[in-house]
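FAQ: What does the model actually see?

It sees only this:
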Amino acid sequence: MPLNLEGPMVCQWIGEAAALEHFASYVGATQSQQHIKPLHWYVACRLVLEGGFRPEEITPRPPFTWQRQGREDRLTFDPSVATGVESTVLGGLKTKNVDVVVTKPGLGPVMAVSVKGTIGAFRNLTNRMEEAVGDCTNLHITYPAMVCGFFSVLRANRLEEDAAEAVAPEDAPPARQLSANDIAIHKGGDPVETIIRYHTALRELSGRRGIRDDVSRYEAVSMALVESNTATPGVLLDRFPPEDSPLRLEQFFQALYLRYDERYVYAAPDLKSVTRRREWAEGSSAIADAAHAEVRSTLGYTLRVAGE
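And it is asked to produce this:
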C-alpha cells in the first residue's frame, strides 16, 4: 500500500524496503522527521507481525487489531486505530520520548527501540554516540529489565564526480548538496574512516544480556547503511557492516526477542499469560487476504504464524 505523508502522521503498515527507500531519497527538511517516521512505523509493525506483540501494547500504535477466537489469535489490518504519538518513559535522570515502546499491563515498558537516521555530516557521529549512551543509561536506571534497542540508519552517500567536488545547482534542495563530510563510501566501495570508527564504537554499546549488567549498554544495536545517491536508493549495503558483525540488521530483532523472552517469559512463568508473544492464525485477514499481498511481499521478514 502506498505511503501517505500528506495527512496526519500516524503509523502506517510499511515494509523494510519502502521505509529504507523513503529514508534514502527524502529531500525535505529533516526537522519535520518525515524522513525517519516511516522507519518508526516499520519497527512498530514488525514487532506485531514478526514479534507477536499485541498492537495495543505498542506506541505508536500500528494499524492492526486482534481477536482471540477459540484457540486462535486472529490479526486484522485496521488503519482507524493507528496513532502517531511517541511514548514518554520515566528515566532515572529525566523523562524521555522514545520512538517505539512496548508496554505490558501491570509491568510497564518492557521494550524500547530508538531509531536514529543520519543523512550526512558524519563528523557529528561522536555526538550521536554520547546521546545513545545517555539515553540507554537513563532508561535502564529506572527499568533495569527493559530490553533496549538502538537502530542506526545512515545514508551510504558515495563519492561521485559531481557529488563532493562540484557546486550543486542553486535550485537544488539543500539535502542533496553533498560536501566531503557527507561522503560515507569511498570510490572503491569501502566505508570512510568515520563510519568504521562509528561501527567499532557501536559494537561496544551492544550485547547487554542480564539485568545486572552495565546499564549503559543496549540489549541490541543495529547499524545499516543504505544506498542513497545511486540508481537504487534504499538498498542495504551488504558489505558493511561485515558478515561477522553483531550489528547487522538481520540479527537486531532476533536479539531483542531473545532477551525479552529470557526476562519476561521464561524467568516469570506465572506471568506468561500477559507476557507471551502471540502466534497469529494463518487465516487472519492481515496474513491471508489478497488485498494485503503487495505490502506483505515487501516486509523483509517472516510473519509469526501459528504452526510454522
